Amino acid sequence: MASMMISGLAGARVGPAAVSRKSSVRARAGQSIRMKSFPARRAVELATVASLVAPGGAQSGANLRYASISSAAGKSPRVESIAFNDPTPAPWYAREFDVHIALDKGLGSIMLLGATALSLYLANSGYAHDFIHFWEHFHFGPKAIGLFLNAHEWVNEGLMAIFFFNVGLEIKREFAFGSLSDIKAALLPCFGALGGMIAPMGIYLALNMVNGGITAGWAIPMATDIAFAMGVYNFFKNRMPPAVAAFLLTLATVDDLGAIAVIAVCFAKGIVPAYLAASAAITGALFVACKKKVTSMAVYGGLGVALWYALLKGGINADIAGVVAALAVPAAAPAPPGSHAHGMEEGMEPTLLDDLIHSLHPISSLLIMPCFALANCAVPVDASALGGVVGTPVGRGIMAGLLLGKPLGIFALCYGAVKMGICSFPKGMNGKHLVTVGMLAGIGFTMSLFLIEQALVGMPAAAVSAKLAILCSSGIAAVIGGFAMTRFPVYFCEIVCDEDEGCRPELYEEQVFKAENDCDEVACTPKFLTEGEEESA
C-alpha cells in the first residue's frame, strides 16, 4: 500500500468538533479526521470548497496540514485521514496592509464618521468662524472660463462628480454581470427600492403640507447610503442568509439610481439651452465611443470633463456627468495589462469596469467622501438647532421618512409582490429579514446630505435642521438595524461531501448545530458524509 501527502490545499478552520450528523466521527483542531472508503478526488474538492468558504482563508493561519491518501492494487485511491493546523493568526502589525481589504472591513465608513465628527467639532468650537469662512470664501480656479468657485462648490460640484463616476461604474457592472443582470432575481429588490423611495417622500410631503413646512425637501429622505448600510450589515452578516446581502446591495443601487434621476430632472436651475445642446452632443460622442469599443480612458476622461463643464454652465447638476461617462464605458472590455483588479465572480477575468472601480474606490472612500463630510456637516449644534430636528416640519418629515417610510415602503411593496405571485423571496430570506433590511435602508447620510444641498438652496435654517435630522435618523436606523440583526441566529458554514454531488458549502443555524452536535463555537466546520457511514454510526 502506498501513501502520499497533500498540503496547503484548504483554509477550513475546525472548531471544537467536526461532526458528521449520521456518524460518530469527531476531531479537534490539529487532529486527524478518519474517513473510511472516501474517494481521493473528494479530498481535492473538499480542499477547494473549504478555501472558498473559510473566513479569512489562509491568512487566518488555520489551513490544511495534510491529507493522507492510500491506494491498493486495482482500487481507487482512498483518503485515510485529514488534519488541520491550529489557527495561529499573525499579529496585526505583522500583516501586509491591503487597502481594499481594509475598505471591505469598514475603513471607509470609519473615515467618513471621523470626518463628520471633526466637522461638527470644528463648527462648534473656537475655530468655527475660520472653518466655515474657509469653505464659503476661499475661491480658486480659472476665472476666464467661469470656474472661480469656492472650496465648498469644488467639493460638491467637482470631487462629487468623481464619486458619481465611481457609483455609475458600480451600477453598470451590476447591470452587466451582477445582481441586476438577472431581471427575475432583481425584481423583488427593485420593488423594495420603489417602495423605499415613494413612502418616505409621501410622509415628508404629508407632514410639511399639513404643518406649513417646506415642501421643496421632498426628495431628501428617499436615498440610502450604500457604504454605511453595507458596513452595518457586515458587522452582523453571519446572522443573515447570504441572499440578504445581495438583496440589500441591489435595493441600495436602484435607490441611488432613483436619487440620481431626481437630481438630474428636478433640481435644474437657470437652464441655458446652448450648453444643454453641447451636453447632448458630448453625451452622444461618449456612447459612440462605447459602441466603437474604445477603451482609452483619455477619451472618456476628456469627454467626461467637457460634459461636466457643459452641464455646470447649462444649469444641470454637473455631477451627473460622472454617471453618464461611467455608463458609456464598455462593459465587456478587458482590464489593461498589469491590472490588479479581480473579476466580479470567481473565475471571471477582470474587465475595464473592474479595473476602474479597483482604482477609484479607495480615492472615493478615503478622500472624496471625508472631504464631502467636512464641507457639508459643519452645522452648529445647540439647543435651538437640536429643537429644530423634531420641532420643525422639515426635521420631522425627514426623520419620519427615513425611520418609518423606508421600512414600511420596502416591506409593503415587497410583501405585496410576493403575495401576488409576481416574485418570491430569495432562498433563506423571509419577512423578518425584509423589515431588518428596511431599517438599514433608513441610513441616508451621504446622498441625503447631497440632496439637501440641491433642494434647500438659500434656506440655511431649514438646511441645518435637515442635516441634523439626517445625522440623527441615520444613527438611529443603524443602531436599530444592527440590534435587529443580533436577534437572528448565527449561521455557520459546513462543507458537505457525498458521492452523488461532491463537496459543497451549506449553511445552518446555531440552534440546529447546538441541538444536534452539542458544540459551542464553530466558525467553519467540515462535515463528511462517507460511504462507510452505516459502519461507523
Automatic annotation (TrEMBL):
InterPro entries reported for this sequence: Na/H_antiporter_dom_sf, NhaA
- Which superkingdom? Eukaryota
GO MF entries = sodium:proton antiporter activity
GO CC list: plasma membrane
Q: Where are the transmembrane segments?
A: 106-124, 144-165, 186-207, 213-236, 243-265, 271-290, 398-422, 434-452, 464-485
- UniProt xrefs under Gene3D superfamilies: Na+/H+ antiporter like domain (1.20.1530.10)
Q: Which UniProt keywords apply?
A: Cell membrane, Membrane, Transmembrane, Transmembrane helix
Any coiled-coil ranges, and where? Answer: none
Cell cycle found in the keyword field: no
Membrane topology label: Multi-pass membrane protein
The reply on keyword Ion transport is: no
Quote any Pfam family the record assigns.
Answer: Na_H_antiport_1
Per the record, the GO terms for biological process are:
regulation of pH
Cellular compartments annotated? Cell inner membrane
Q: Which HAMAP family match?
A: NhaA
Q: What protein name applies here?
A: NhaA Na+:H+ antiporter family
Q: Which organism is it from?
A: Micromonas commoda (strain RCC299 / NOUM17 / CCMP2709)
